[in-house]
Amino acid sequence: MTLASCDTALPQPIRYQGDHHAQPTASRNHGRNASGNATFRFTYLASLTCTLSGVLEQHGQLYRIPTATYQCSDGVSTSATLSEIKATTQGIEGRMSAGLAAGACQEDAAFSAVLQ
User: Fold this and answer.
1) Which of 1, 8, 64, 86 has the most CB atoms at less than 10 Å from its CB?
2) Which is nearest to 53 in space by CA: 89, 19, 82, 22?
3) Is the peptide bond before 13 cis (omega within 30 degrees of 0)?
4) Of 101, 96, 94, 102, residue with least CA distance to 1
5) pLDDT for 79-88, tens place per residue?
6) CA 91/CA 86 separation, integer angstroms
7) 56-71, pLDDT tens digit by residue?
Protein backbone atom coordinates (compact mmCIF):
# COMPACT_ATOMS: atom_id res chain seq x y z
CA MET A 1 0.00 0.00 0.00
CA THR A 2 1.34 3.46 -0.83
CA LEU A 3 0.34 6.91 0.39
CA ALA A 4 1.59 9.80 -1.75
CA SER A 5 1.23 13.60 -1.85
CA CYS A 6 0.31 13.78 1.83
CA ASP A 7 0.48 17.09 3.65
CA THR A 8 3.11 15.87 6.10
CA ALA A 9 6.78 16.41 6.77
CA LEU A 10 7.48 12.76 5.93
CA PRO A 11 9.39 11.84 2.75
CA GLN A 12 7.10 10.92 -0.16
CA PRO A 13 5.81 8.44 -1.12
CA ILE A 14 5.15 6.51 2.11
CA ARG A 15 4.97 2.75 1.66
CA TYR A 16 3.52 0.48 4.29
CA GLN A 17 2.06 -2.97 4.61
CA GLY A 18 -1.12 -3.36 6.60
CA ASP A 19 -2.43 -6.59 8.04
CA HIS A 20 -6.09 -6.89 7.23
CA HIS A 21 -8.89 -9.36 6.82
CA ALA A 22 -10.99 -8.89 3.69
CA GLN A 23 -14.58 -10.05 3.39
CA PRO A 24 -15.65 -9.32 -0.18
CA THR A 25 -19.21 -10.03 -1.28
CA ALA A 26 -20.52 -9.57 -4.79
CA SER A 27 -23.58 -10.14 -6.90
CA ARG A 28 -23.83 -9.73 -10.64
CA ASN A 29 -26.03 -10.51 -13.60
CA HIS A 30 -24.75 -13.35 -15.74
CA GLY A 31 -24.05 -12.78 -19.41
CA ARG A 32 -21.89 -10.69 -21.64
CA ASN A 33 -20.69 -7.42 -20.09
CA ALA A 34 -22.28 -8.50 -16.82
CA SER A 35 -22.46 -5.99 -14.01
CA GLY A 36 -23.84 -5.82 -10.50
CA ASN A 37 -23.04 -4.56 -7.03
CA ALA A 38 -20.02 -5.54 -4.97
CA THR A 39 -18.90 -4.72 -1.44
CA PHE A 40 -15.41 -5.17 -0.01
CA ARG A 41 -14.96 -4.98 3.77
CA PHE A 42 -11.48 -4.72 5.25
CA THR A 43 -10.90 -5.18 8.97
CA TYR A 44 -7.49 -4.08 10.18
CA LEU A 45 -5.72 -5.28 13.33
CA ALA A 46 -6.30 -1.96 15.07
CA SER A 47 -10.11 -2.56 14.88
CA LEU A 48 -10.43 -0.17 11.94
CA THR A 49 -12.98 -1.31 9.37
CA CYS A 50 -13.33 0.10 5.88
CA THR A 51 -16.02 -0.68 3.31
CA LEU A 52 -15.78 -0.06 -0.42
CA SER A 53 -18.85 -0.67 -2.56
CA GLY A 54 -20.20 0.13 -5.98
CA VAL A 55 -21.32 -1.15 -9.37
CA LEU A 56 -19.09 -3.71 -11.11
CA GLU A 57 -18.15 -3.31 -14.76
CA GLN A 58 -16.87 -6.40 -16.57
CA HIS A 59 -13.89 -6.09 -18.92
CA GLY A 60 -13.09 -9.60 -20.17
CA GLN A 61 -11.98 -11.67 -17.15
CA LEU A 62 -11.45 -8.59 -14.99
CA TYR A 63 -13.89 -6.32 -13.19
CA ARG A 64 -13.72 -2.67 -12.21
CA ILE A 65 -15.65 -0.32 -9.93
CA PRO A 66 -14.87 3.15 -11.29
CA THR A 67 -16.58 5.11 -8.50
CA ALA A 68 -16.79 3.11 -5.28
CA THR A 69 -17.91 4.62 -2.00
CA TYR A 70 -15.12 4.30 0.58
CA GLN A 71 -16.11 4.62 4.24
CA CYS A 72 -14.16 3.72 7.38
CA SER A 73 -15.03 3.43 11.05
CA ASP A 74 -12.63 6.30 11.82
CA GLY A 75 -14.77 8.75 9.81
CA VAL A 76 -13.02 8.58 6.42
CA SER A 77 -15.62 9.04 3.70
CA THR A 78 -14.49 9.46 0.10
CA SER A 79 -14.57 7.66 -3.25
CA ALA A 80 -12.18 5.12 -4.72
CA THR A 81 -11.52 3.20 -7.92
CA LEU A 82 -11.21 -0.58 -7.70
CA SER A 83 -9.61 -2.21 -10.73
CA GLU A 84 -8.14 -5.49 -11.92
CA ILE A 85 -10.67 -7.35 -9.76
CA LYS A 86 -10.50 -11.04 -10.53
CA ALA A 87 -11.99 -14.15 -8.98
CA THR A 88 -9.45 -16.96 -8.79
CA THR A 89 -9.65 -20.57 -7.67
CA GLN A 90 -8.16 -19.45 -4.34
CA GLY A 91 -10.28 -16.30 -3.80
CA ILE A 92 -10.28 -12.77 -5.16
CA GLU A 93 -7.69 -10.10 -5.93
CA GLY A 94 -7.57 -6.54 -7.21
CA ARG A 95 -6.23 -3.01 -6.85
CA MET A 96 -7.61 0.10 -5.18
CA SER A 97 -6.84 3.79 -5.59
CA ALA A 98 -8.35 6.65 -3.60
CA GLY A 99 -7.75 10.29 -2.85
CA LEU A 100 -8.06 10.84 0.88
CA ALA A 101 -9.26 14.30 1.83
CA ALA A 102 -7.55 14.19 5.25
CA GLY A 103 -3.98 15.24 4.54
CA ALA A 104 -4.64 15.36 0.77
CA CYS A 105 -3.12 11.88 0.31
CA GLN A 106 -3.38 9.44 -2.57
CA GLU A 107 -3.78 5.83 -1.40
CA ASP A 108 -2.90 2.96 -3.76
CA ALA A 109 -3.12 -0.70 -2.74
CA ALA A 110 -3.25 -4.24 -4.04
CA PHE A 111 -5.52 -6.65 -2.17
CA SER A 112 -6.32 -10.34 -2.13
CA ALA A 113 -8.51 -12.63 -0.04
CA VAL A 114 -8.71 -16.41 0.12
CA LEU A 115 -11.88 -18.48 0.08
CA GLN A 116 -12.86 -19.88 3.45
Assistant:
1) 64
2) 82
3) yes
4) 96
5) 999 999 998 8
6) 9
7) 999 999 999 999 999 9
